[in-house]
Design a protein that fits this description.
This protein is α/β, with parallel strands linked by helices. About 45% of the residues lie in helices and about 15% in strands. Strand 16 and strand 17 form a beta hairpin. The radius of gyration is 27 Å and the shape is globular. About 40% of the residues are buried. The chain binds zinc ion (ZN).
């Protein structure tokens, strides 16, 4: 069937036919986390959105090189290039080496992503590991005449750039408007124009993270790392750059300016942005008391939460909205979504047990086609989920003997559900897994009772337990230090 994928390009604001530069290879770059604190809901959405894209592109046959960076340097507290480095600040407060902070929170991030069943990217480069590449790009931009050195720092010359290239196309912002907004900010005396942004910053004496460069001992500006690492691993032109909508300006707008200034052309063919998450209709923020980490979600320990929500409930909830729509988290909606997920998983368990008939009285192919059509229409996951729910009706009718499916149709229906639910949407059957843990626990308890019987020389009971387990296909082997069991 037709597998033409259409993706909304934030730059052109149109859904465009996806045609990679070098098929079957696809280059995908996504802005990763700044690792100075626990991952929260704001990290979950881009991770899941681009995991869905990564999984789907792979499913339809592309070979995807997925690069998602770790920002471990250069992201200052104030996006106008001022304040302390976020990681260095955390390190100072905790009396740690900055790389200890980075290592610790990178590990925590990976753990949370694993819980959400987000696949690891193909390459996960760190900004601090690519200082040389960043210095090279700064030099290229200076050589092209779009950056200048000032007191050991290097700034992007936006006024000059805007004379030659369009600026603000991605965010729709106009330089004149921005100019009046930012003119009031202080500490910009090094810049020729208030909107110029730092490519390289000279480190103040107390700044811990610093590297030598032709201009000063210092550190790269935040926007630079993504230009350096994306082009380093994906080439000067690559297929897709993704990230949250909050990164559209200034981060991605600056990335476009940097690569255009350095290379003479844009690097990115398609920009994708996921929309933001709100909690009970409010923006998430530390000052609003609704800043919920993923750990707090999974344990239910935040006062806003009525209960714990499992990683799959959170993932399913996020996938029930299209990635370009906002998602509002609330207890009621989450619980409804939790029930929906259980219903879907129960449906798959029923499906897996269905027996084929001679002939089909229903045609399940329609579900498969509709699911692909929805995914091909700019990753419309809520529509995919709706079609999968529609299909549960057929599954239940077959279970009740009111409809039948041939062997081939039944196999195809199973494949459709397994492909879309597990491989593409990346959901896991948590309840089923919990049931397996329950079985393990129960058998171990039974074997303890058997051991007690043996210790009391009550061989009638111990043999009876062994035979009962054998009837269930569980083989018990006695060892010196207790019994071992396995399923036959
Ligand atoms: Zn980035």
């Amino acid at each position: 069937m037709d597998q033409t994928l259409y993706i909304h390009n934030s730059l052109t604001r149109n859904k465009e036919k996806f045609e990679p530069l070098n098929p079957p290879h696809v280059g995908l770059y996504v802005c990763g986390p700044t690792v100075y604190g626990d991952a929260h809901l704001g990290h979950a959405r881009p991770a899941i959105t681009f995991d869905l894209l990564f999984r789907y592109l792979t499913h339809i046959g592309y070979k995807v090189r997925y690069v998602r960076n770790i920002t471990d340097v250069g992201h200052l507290e104030n996006d106008a290039d001022a304040g302390e480095d976020k990681i260095a600040r955390k390190a100072r407060l905790e009396q740690l080496e900055p790389m200890e902070v980075v290592q610790y929170f990178t590990g925590r991030y990976h753990h949370n992503m694993g819980q959400l069943n987000v696949l690891p990217p193909s390459i996960e480069p760190r900004a601090s590991g690519h200082i040389i590449e960043q210095i090279q790009i700064v030099q290229k931009i200076i050589d092209a005449g779009f950056a200048y050195e000032s007191n050991g720092s290097v700034y992007f010359d936006l006024e000059k750039y805007a004379q030659k290239y369009p600026y603000g196309q991605l965010s729709g912002r106009v330089i004149e408007d921005l100019d009046t907004q930012t003119r009031e900010l202080d500490g910009q005396s090094e810049k020729r124009f208030p909107l110029d942004f730092a490519l390289w910053k000279k480190a103040s004496p107390e700044h811990i993270m610093r590297w030598p460069s032709p201009w000063s001992d210092g550190f790269p500006g935040w926007h630079l790392e993504c230009t350096a690492m994306s082009t380093r691993y994906l080439g000067d032109t690559f297929d897709i750059h993704g990230g949250g909508m909050d990164l559209l300006f200034p981060h991605h707008e600056c990335e476009i300016a940097q690569s255009t200034a350095a290379l003479g052309h844009e690097s990115v063919r398609c920009w994708m942005h996921n929309n933001m998450i709100t909690i009970n209709g409010q923006k998430m923020g530390k000052s609003l008391g609704n800043f919920i980490t993923l750990d707090e979600f999974f344990s239910g320990t935040h006062p806003v939460l009525e209960k714990a929500y499992s990683p799959m409930a959170v993932r399913f909830f996020i996938l029930q909205a299209h990635y370009r729509s906002t998602v509002d988290f609330g207890n009621e909606a989450l619980q409804a979504s939790e029930k929906g997920l259980q219903r879907l998983m129960a449906g798959i368990q029923t499906l897996d047990k269905l027996m084929p008939a001679e002939k089909s009285t229903v045609a399940p192919d329609e579900i498969r086609q509709k699911c692909y059509q929805a995914m091909n229409d700019d990753l419309n996951s809520p529509m995919v989920i709706a079609h999968l729910f529609d299909g549960l009706r057929i599954i239940n009718l077959v279970r009740d003997g009111k409809e039948t499916l041939s062997k081939a149709d039944l196999e195809q229906l199973k494949r459709t559900y397994h492909n879309f639910v597990f491989d593409i949407l990346g959901l896991k059957d948590e309840q089923n897994r919990n049931r397996m843990e329950l079985v393990d626990g129960l058998i171990n308890h039974i074997l303890e009772i058997r051991q007690q019987a043996k210790d009391n020389r009550d061989f009638t009971t111990s043999d009876k337990i062994r035979n009962m387990l054998a009837d269930l296909g569980i083989e018990v082997k006695d060892r010196k230090d207790g019994a071992e069991w396995s399923m036959k």
